[in-house]
Amino acid sequence: MDYKKLIKVALNYRNRAYSPYSDFKVGAAVLFESGEIYGGCNIENASFGATNCAERTGIFKGISEGESKIKAVAVVGSLEELTYPCGICRQVIAEFGDKDVKIIIAKSENDYIVKDMNDILPGAFTKSDLGK
Ligand code: THU
Q1: Would you place residue 1 in the very low, low, confident or very high pLDDT band (cuts 50, 70, 90)?
Q2: What are the pLDDT digits (tens) for 31-63?
């Protein structure tokens, strides 16, 4: 898997962040099993709760285009320290990926760590808990 390519996409989408309230830019790149990559940025709102994170923007773009399974998600927030996906995004990634989905948490193309989904959301509540 080409982690550097995913980080490059995430960095590009980070520039598209709409974050006038937090001034915190986040970019994400979501690789689906088809091989397609969907980029996303955070999109804030004057009604703060309506904000959408970069990861979910990318995931929802892919799912709405007919994608079904996530293989990897790269995220770039702060360029000074690693920014992990928020709890809501972890839950949404868990909905569309297996426990071994790769989460690439990056500051740059050369400065990143890779985690398995299960490392950052152990014991996830999923469709199997609902008998689905
Ligand atoms: N944010 C993301 O886009 N992804 C995360 O995983 C963490 C938080 C955004 C949401 C909001 O626009 C800003 O960062 C500050 O919370």
Answers
A1: confident
A2: 999 999 999 999 999 999 999 999 999 999 999
In angstroms, rounded to a whole number, what is the distance separating the alpha carbons of residues 48 and 22?
Answer: 10
Delimit the domains of the chain by residue range.
3-119
Ligand 1 contact, 54 CB (< 6 A): yes
Q: Are strands 70-76 and 97-108 parallel, antiparallel or unpaired?
A: parallel
Task: Give the pTM.
Answer: 0.97
Instruction: Determine the atom of ligand 1 nearest the C-alpha atom of 53.
Output: 3
41 is in an annotated binding site: no
Active site residue 67: no
What are the DSSP E strand ranges found in the chain?
A: 27-32, 37-41, 70-76, 97-108, 111-116
Q: What is the CATH number of domain 3-119?
A: 3.40.140.10
The 3-state DSSP composition of the chain as helix, strand, coil percent (nearest 5) reads 35, 30, 35
